[in-house]
Amino acid sequence: MISVNDLKTGLTIEVDGNIYRVIEFQHVKPGKGAAFVRTKLKNLRNGSTAEKTFRGGEKVAKAQIDNKKMQYLYESGGSYVFMDMDTYEQLELPHEQIAEELNYLLENSECHIMMYGTETIGINLPNTVELEVKETEPGIKGDTSSGGSKPAVMETDLVVQVPFFINAGDRLIINTSDGSYVSRA
Q1: 88: phi > 0 → left, psi -120 to 50 → alpha, else beta; which?
Q2: Which of 2, 33, 115, 129 is the most buried (most CB within 10 A)?
Q3: Long-range contacts of residues 31-37, Cβ cutoff 8 Å, at least 24 apart
Q4: What is the residue-wise DSSP string for 30-79?
Q5: Nearest 5°: CA angle at 179, between 70 and 138?
Q6: Phi-psi region of 16 (alpha: psi -120 to 50; beta: other; left: phi over 0)
Q7: How confident is the model at residue 76 (pLDDT cuts 50, 70, 90)?
Q8: Quick check: 146 pLDDT over 60?
């Protein structure tokens, strides 16, 4: 058990039988009344987000999440197959559970699967990934990096807003938290 005063972004907690990751938190000390903590939580089982307010000093259970290094192999009838890098065991995850993360995964890429005991919670993505531009409008000579943006379709079918000088075939670094362009690779 940990105090809500010790909550930090990225921490996993168990509340009302559900497992949540803290996305945002704010300690509030009003002039009148007791202090409290406002949080924005992501349910790791179904991907929904919720806002929850805790009284100051309230205790919550910390959820022990283990990260298992696995390799994404292929898609098979709406499920996605991953292989444990050490034991070669295979694990299938349904599309609904990892739909958002699939925008950043390529076949044969390594990732970390989040496990809560024996239950598979989802995929823990790195902060950034390197993807190739599949299609975009061609750049025009004279366009600068600060002159605006255009849509580009990446090799995973993710659409990212990129500067005008980016062309099809370029490799880019993409932020996995919000799907934004970071830089050329």
Answers
A1: left
A2: 129
A3: 37/4, 37/5, 37/7
A4: -SSS--EEEEEEEETTT--EEEEEEETT-EEEEP--EEEEEEEEEEETTE
A5: 115
A6: left
A7: confident
A8: no
CATH superfamily of 65-124: Nucleic acid-binding proteins (2.40.50.140)
User: Residue 118, class by beta-carbon neighbours within 10 Å (0-12 exposed, 13-18 middle, 19+ buried)?
Assistant: exposed
| Type and span of the H or E element at 122 | strand 119-124
Percentage of the chain surpassing pLDDT 90?
A: 18
Selection from 66, 130, 79, 75 nearest residue 104 by Cα: 130
The domain locations on the chain are: 2-62, 65-124, 128-184
Quick check: do 2-62 and 65-124 share a fold?
no
- What fold characterizes domain 2-62? SH3 type barrels. (2.30.30)
Tell me the pTM: 0.71
The CATH architecture assigned to 128-184 reads Beta Barrel (2.40)
- Here the tokens at position 39 are 């949080």
Supply 127's token pair. 């902060």
